[in-house]
Write a structure and sequence with these properties.
The chain has about 290 residues and is mainly alpha-helical. The chain has two domains: about 120 residues, no CATH class; about 90 residues, no CATH class. It has a two-stranded antiparallel sheet. A hairpin with a 5-residue loop joins strand 1 and strand 2. The longest helix has about 80 residues.
């Protein structure tokens, strides 16, 4: 009986050693595979760093150089002091698009889009992104002496794109544009001292109170053939006034922006207005 009970115990110990050795082998294989997988990821990380630091940066510089040439071509087409040079660029662009069969497809497109499409081909998403970024640059050169928005100089385009996070960031910023509230704030600055006419309302039909002093209101008026304005209503709703100011900005944003900048230069603007003016310089109103 003792012998019979001893044998299973011995077999159990031997089997236990065999299982431990197998488990150790499996663990070793797993660790080897783990080290290999980690090594692969580390190698790929190093290759990505080299790509970003050398190849990708080199490709980005080359892209910006081509975009600068496209942008410069447009500026020459539109702003060269020599009419014959402008005409030559116009004819060259038309001829190029004709040979590529793009004349009809781009008939209603912005000239900047035509130039970008001519250079970068039929990838519509890429052409759209590049065109939007370059058109944004056309409104990012500050203001001239008359208060008109100037295009960014071609020589500054590459650094400008880099400073703004690249083409995609510029495209997204342009798409977002200014909010209606921001447009209204800029318009309000521009109109601060602007007076087209002064009228003294008949308080029997248009009652005003001391609470209305220095408050902006919306006057609903109709111009008649007699040369008179017929005032039908006075709207004191702030949302309606903001909507009207925003519409005034959108109707002629260059002139309104110039007037707002002039007014802000004379008198320090409140923080909200300063933010709105900064938006004018960095975004395109939708």
């Amino acid at each position: 009986m003792n012998a019979m009970s001893f044998i299973p115990a011995t077999s159990s110990v031997v089997t236990g050693f065999a299982l431990s050795a197998t488990a150790s082998k499996v663990l070793e294989v797993k660790q080897t595979g783990l080290r290999a997988a980690l090594g692969q990821l580390e190698r790929l990380e190093q290759e990505r760093q080299a790509w970003e630091g050398e190849e990708l940066e080199s490709a980005r510089r080359r892209l910006y150089a081509m975009l600068t040439e496209c942008y410069g071509f447009y500026l020459t087409l539109k702003t060269s002091a020599a009419q014959d040079i402008r005409q030559q660029h116009k004819e060259a662009l038309a001829a190029f698009l004709e040979t590529r069969g793009l004349t009809k497809a781009l008939a209603s497109s912005h000239d900047m889009s035509k130039i970008v499409r001519a250079v970068f081909g039929v990838d519509r998403r890429r052409v759209s992104a590049y065109s939007i970024a370059l058109r944004k640059a056309l409104e990012s050169g500050g203001l001239d002496s008359s208060g008109k928005v100037k295009p960014l100089p071609a020589g500054a385009l590459s650094s400008w794109l880099a400073e703004h996070g690249g083409v995609e960031e510029v495209r997204l910023g342009s798409k977002q544009g200014m909010t209606a509230k921001q447009r209204a704030e800029v318009a309000q600055v521009a109109l601060r001292d602007a007076v087209l006419m002064r009228i003294k309302p008949d308080t029997r039909t248009m009652p005003f109170s001391t609470d209305d002093a220095d408050r902006t209101v919306l006057v609903v008026a109709t111009y008649r053939p007699t040369g008179e304005l017929e005032v039908s209503a006075v709207v004191r709703n702030d949302a309606a006034v903001r909507a009207a100011l925003a519409a005034h900005y959108s109707a002629d944003k260059d002139a309104v922006t110039a007037a707002a900048n002039k007014a802000a230069a004379v008198e320090a603007a409140p923080t909200a207005i300063a933010v709105a003016m900064d938006q004018v310089q960095t975004r395109i109103a939708a």
